[in-house]
Every structure is written in structure tokens, then in C-alpha cells.
Amino acid sequence: MNNNYLLRASIAGAVIGAVSVVLDMMQICCPFTGLGFIGFLVPVVLIWYYARKYSLSCGAAGCSYGQVLGFIAVSMVFAGLLYGALKAVAVNTFIEEEYKALLGQSMDMIKQMGVYSKAQIKQMNGMMNTMQFNPIFIVFSSIFSMVFSGVLYGLVIAAFTRREADPFAETNQTSENE
After folding, report:
1. Is residue 173 one of the residues assigned to a domain?
2. Domain containing 146: what range?
């Protein structure tokens, strides 16, 4: 792959990852009704923006659906890395108490269901606390979730941001981004 391609993907991923972690931390610290929708919409718009920017950079050679979807997938790997690293730091330092309270609410809801025994709930609570504060688990789960959601959104976004090659261009060679 071209260094320019990876540079564009890493910049897109860095912006998407940083914005996503800020929105998630806001949702944990000061939740309000519309923040969940904003947390969904802003990353989708950013993915569309960077995918469109990438497809326009392909020039006269055009940019296929697969190329745009590949760019989105690579961008989301970078986004997941940054998101996971920032979230691991934030959860273990800045918002530890708020995050523990949020996990406690989840466990209370599970207890109210009445499906699990006390021993099972105690085991679940221990596992959840161990995993949700483990930086390695946070980073890998963030990469997986960002790539999965980004490619899922990208299936639609790539259809609208791809560009056909210009048949009237003097040379219709591949661009520097392929």
C-alpha cells in the first residue's frame, strides 16, 4: 500500500476515533437524551466526509466501491486503536468512578431480572469489572467494534462516494492512491 493511502487513512481514523471517544466520555459523565443520536451521527458523517475526500483524490482514474470500502476499513482500524487507547486511559484515570457507577447500574438491572443465582451474579460482576478496566481488552474490543460498525456503515457510504473513471481523460492510469 502507498504511504499516502495509509497517511490519509490514519488521519481519518485519528479524527473519527478522537471525536468518538470524546462523545462517549460525555455520555458517561453528563448524559442527556440527544447525545446517543449525536454519538451515532457524527462518526457516520465523518466516515462519509473522509471517504468522499479519498474518492475525489483518486483523480481521473476513479475510485471503485471496493477501494472506498477498503479505505473505510483501514481508517476504522486506526480509529479503533486510538479510541481504545484513549478510552483505556480515561476509564482507568479520569472517569473511573462514573464508569463503575454505570457498570453497577447494569448489574442491578441483571439482578432485577431474577434469572441468575447470586453466585452467577457475583461471578459476572467480577468478570465485568476485570474486563471493562483491562486496557488490552478495551483496545482490542474497540478495534473490533469500530471496524465492524465502520464497515457496516461503509457498505452504504461507499456506494455513494465511489467515482467512475473519466472516459475522456487523456491517460486513464491508476492514481497514486491505489
Report:
1. no
2. 3-161
